[in-house]
Task: inverse folding
């Protein structure tokens, strides 16, 4: 017996059109006016909303900092909408007054039509009313009072999110659910650590949209969870706006089937048939499931689509949750905090750096209070106007491209662009003892909804004969990662091959060597930016290069990877 089981023919398009996230999800959905909308009485506005299309240079969901501007944009649109409503109400009030006046006249004249019209004044006014006043009324009804609102919408077109934002923010929410092992009910309620402002949680339709996003990624387990959550909310009395229980059960049963759970798929299908007994697809599916179960047949569960990179996802996600199996009591006992003056560097004698060991081999250290609140806000202010979608490098042709492995926006600040930037760059040199003349410009990054940078290395591999040839300064010998914000939940920097975790602390910086003293890359420095669960994460990277370090960090084939970060004596 062979039966094709598919919930809908237009699943692919539906998946692309319906996505969102908690507070941000609902917010973006309010601004995304380009999709299918409810019927509206004002036809001109309906045409505007249906035909409206947007384009955005960079996806809004990739930067919380950029998304904040949308709040002000929505306020402006709301003010314009209120003005439009007021104009429509005034127009309607005029029509009502005219209608009431006409009703009174008509009620009087219709009692004795000939007597009424036999009076020449009545006849004059009646013909005038039909000739002119009804025409005036027609002009009033046809008048377009929406011009200001339409103009504001057109002006805001390029500043509004599009379908890519809705897909991206839905995938971000699913990424957070997977990484931090969040159950759907907790996520639907918005019960996340460090949160206070919530826009009502997820509705039935929101849960359905997230299920569709999971379905589009062939993640049938997560699809089943969100369709089930939508059904649960309906049983609790919540009313959906667009989706119906038949559609939810249709997807729910199919996602169960794709996981190989035909018993539960059959139960869900029978529930669908209780609501819609003549549903043709459900009737065929019921027969198929019953036949398969009766003959002890099964299917191989379909796995989710593979991620864009290959790495030990179990270790990486565990570290993001703070589960470091490598940080044993013995190792922890060898990690210390100290004041560091880099061998009595004159700029550190009075105010030495506060140094904290995070890992022993390779050596990973944090320096506290290297940037003040004023420094941090200045850097963010300088970077905001320049933020653009972060990209990754194609090592084959050295081109850059946007990728799902890196969800953020960044900006580059020249090291001499502003006194604060110059001061912070000089401080890196004071603390590390390395030459800063060959350092790259400061890269400032702001992470978006579920913002992430999956495991990667900062240096170019040995296969690249001339690393960073465009700079002419050799490979990236070290990384200085400055945190520009606290993050209430998530957003850690993790090192899967070490087992180390660095949580964002505003004003602190983490430092490590990317290259061994031999000049070879140290793959144990592979690191990742975990998804931001709650908050807006800002960082500033400074990459130091080999050129100029010849007498500051000497090459040695024998020295261990944890060679000291101060000037070698």
Result:
């Amino acid at each position: 017996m062979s039966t094709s089981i598919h919930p809908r023919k237009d699943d692919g398009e539906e998946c692309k059109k319906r996505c969102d996230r908690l507070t941000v999800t609902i917010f973006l959905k309010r601004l995304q006016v380009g999709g299918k909308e409810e019927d509206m009485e004002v036809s001109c506005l309906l045409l505007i909303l249906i035909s409206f299309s947007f384009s955005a240079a960079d996806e809004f969901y990739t930067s919380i900092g950029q998304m904040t501007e949308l709040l002000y944009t929505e306020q402006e649109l709301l003010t314009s909408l209120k003005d439009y409503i007021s104009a429509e109400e005034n127009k309607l009030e005029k029509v009502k007054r005219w209608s009431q006046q006409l009703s009174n006249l008509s009620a009087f004249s219709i009692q004795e039509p000939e007597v009424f019209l036999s009076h020449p004044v009545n006849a004059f006014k009646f013909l005038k009313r039909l000739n002119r006043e009804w025409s005036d009324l027609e002009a009033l009804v046809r008048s377009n009072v929406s011009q200001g609102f339409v103009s504001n919408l057109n002006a805001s077109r390029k500043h509004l999110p599009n379908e890519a934002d809705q897909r991206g923010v839905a995938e971000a929410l699913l990424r957070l659910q997977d990484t931090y092992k969040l159950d759907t009910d907790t996520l639907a309620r918005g019960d996340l650590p460090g949160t206070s402002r919530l826009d009502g949680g997820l509705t039935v339709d929101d849960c359905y949209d997230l299920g569709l996003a999971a379905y589009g990624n062939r993640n049938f387990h997560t699809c089943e969870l969100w369709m089930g959550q939508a059904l649960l909310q309906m049983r609790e009395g919540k009313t959906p706006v667009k989706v119906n229980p038949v559609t939810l059960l249709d997807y729910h049963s199919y996602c169960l089937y794709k996981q190989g759970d035909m018993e539960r798929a059959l139960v869900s299908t029978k529930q669908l048939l209780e609501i819609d007994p003549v549903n043709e697809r459900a009737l065929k599916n019921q027969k198929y499931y019953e036949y398969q179960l009766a003959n002890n047949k099964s299917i191989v569960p379909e796995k989710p689509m593979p991620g864009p990179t290959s790495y030990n996802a179990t270790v990486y996600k565990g570290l993001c949750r703070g589960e470091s199996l490598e940080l044993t009591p013995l190792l922890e006992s060898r990690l210390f905090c100290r004041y560091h003056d880099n061998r009595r560097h004159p700029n550190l004698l009075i105010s030495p750096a506060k140094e904290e060991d995070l890992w022993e081999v390779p050596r990973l250290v944090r320096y506290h209070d290297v940037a003040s609140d004023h420094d941090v806000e200045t850097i963010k202010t300088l970077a905001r106007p320049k933020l653009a979608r972060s990209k990754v490098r194609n090592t084959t042709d050295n081109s850059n491209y946007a990728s799902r492995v890196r969800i953020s926006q960044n900006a580059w600040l020249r090291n001499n662009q502003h006194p604060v930037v110059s001061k912070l760059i000089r401080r890196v040199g004071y603390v590390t003892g390395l030459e800063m003349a060959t350092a790259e410009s400061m890269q400032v990054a702001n992470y978006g909804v579920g913002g992430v940078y999956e495991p990667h290395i900062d240096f170019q591999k040995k296969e690249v004969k001339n690393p960073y040839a465009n700079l002419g300064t050799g490979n990236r010998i070290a990384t200085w990662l400055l945190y520009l914000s606290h993050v209430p939940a998530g957003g850690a920097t993790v090192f899967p091959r070490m087992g180390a975790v660095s949580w964002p602390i505003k004003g602190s910086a983490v430092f490590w060597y990317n290259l061994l003293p031999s000049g070879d890359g140290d793959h144990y420095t592979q690191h990742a930016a975990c998804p931001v669960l709650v908050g807006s994460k800002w960082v500033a990277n400074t990459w130091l290069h080999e050129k100029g370090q010849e007498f500051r960090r000497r090459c040695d084939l024998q020295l261990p990877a944890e060679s000291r970060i101060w000037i070698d004596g």
Notes: Residues 82-158 form one domain. The longest strand covers residues 476-483. Residues 64-109 form the longest helix (46 residues). The chain has three domains: 11-32+161-294, 82-158, 314-393+401-545.
